[in-house]
Amino acid sequence: MADAPIFIGAAEVADLLQYGALLPVLERALVDFSKHDGMVVQPVRSTVPVDKHNGFLGVMPAYMTESDTLATKIVRFYHQTAFGTSSHQATVLLFNPSDGSLRAIMDGTVITEMRTAAVSAIATKYLKPDRLETLCILGSGAQAISHYNIFTQMFPFKQVRVWSRSRESAERFAGQVQGQVQVCTSAREAVLGADVVITVTMASEPVLFGEWVKPGAHVNAVGACRPEWREVDDALMKNAVLYVDSKEAALMESGDVILSGADIFAELGEVVKGTRPALCEKTTLFKSLGMAVEDAATAKLVFDCWLAKKKPKL
Ligand SMILES: NC(=O)C1=CN([C@@H]2O[C@H](COP(=O)(O)OP(=O)(O)OC[C@H]3O[C@@H](n4cnc5c(N)ncnc54)[C@H](O)[C@@H]3O)[C@@H](O)[C@H]2O)C=CC1
Ligand SMILES: O=C([O-])C1=[NH+]CCC1
């Protein structure tokens, strides 16, 4: 009989997962995905609308042959949640690929927060603008915090600006993170002159407009994962060089890509591998939707760290 699956909760995942180990694992997952050689199987996320309750349930399976990793994430994202509960909540199931038995059930919320921010950081590392002085974050929720944490660790920003729909949540964000944050009264004020802009909102209409974005800046557009949702206007989508995590998913899921009709220049994995160029001197935009391979690779890393910690010391 197969061993019972282990359970790894949110606090333990947060304890086991370090960006230093996660970044190379994600770079490899992005590269392997973008080879499109049949070694990675990842259908576009299957999303069930829960209209009555203004929410969605997404199912994200993947199999990666080289690292022999089989997993699926189940993620809910709801517009209205009870006060204090997160809009996104996820669980990852990690399987033994040789017989399909369930090895681990782990919290996927921390995984989602950290791997998404890490992928944006990878995009910024490769599509780096010539200056990295001012970082602008639009939105002040869970992803805003994880993005703040890794971006201020990895890059030498001198100023971080945040804007959120309510000043109160922007101020709460500023109080939660370590380091100085300038709370802005408008998105425009936050964006003007910024070298890197991150959009991490639940908006379904644009919050970021091309006329505000400094030529040569880099944008990570992380929200708006439904075909009818927007975070970014047509001007920016069409004038920036557009990079995505998955072309197939972007053409099915991203309102910013589909409704603007913008041309996709490359997948991030192609840039990391070096088969497509990073046009750093231009205004660049990385449209992130989130991929199952990112979750699978991260879950495998968490599991391996868990095993290493449990191994009796000789
Ligand atoms: N690309 C990826 O891999 C992933 C993307 N996401 C997306 O990132 C975004 C942020 O996620 P979380 O921080 O977890 O959510 P959250 O609920 O913690 O924060 C959402 C933020 O958006 C703001 N907001 C909500 N409606 C808005 C509107 N109409 N206009 C402007 N701001 C609005 C809220 O005030 C809050 O600051 C969401 O769109 C989410 O679906 C989340 C996980 C992975
Ligand atoms: O990749 C992911 O987990 C998600 N992307 C958008 C909503 C959740």
From TrEMBL:
GO terms for molecular function: pyrroline-2-carboxylate reductase activity; thiomorpholine-carboxylate dehydrogenase activity; thyroid hormone binding. It is an enzyme of class 1 (oxidoreductase). GO terms for cellular component: cytoplasm. GO terms for biological process: thyroid hormone metabolic process. PANTHER family: KETIMINE REDUCTASE MU-CRYSTALLIN. Homodimer. Binds the thyroid hormone triiodothyronine (T3); T3 binding inhibits enzymatic activity. Belongs to the ornithine cyclodeaminase/mu-crystallin family. This is Ketimine reductase mu-crystallin. It comes from Callorhinchus milii.
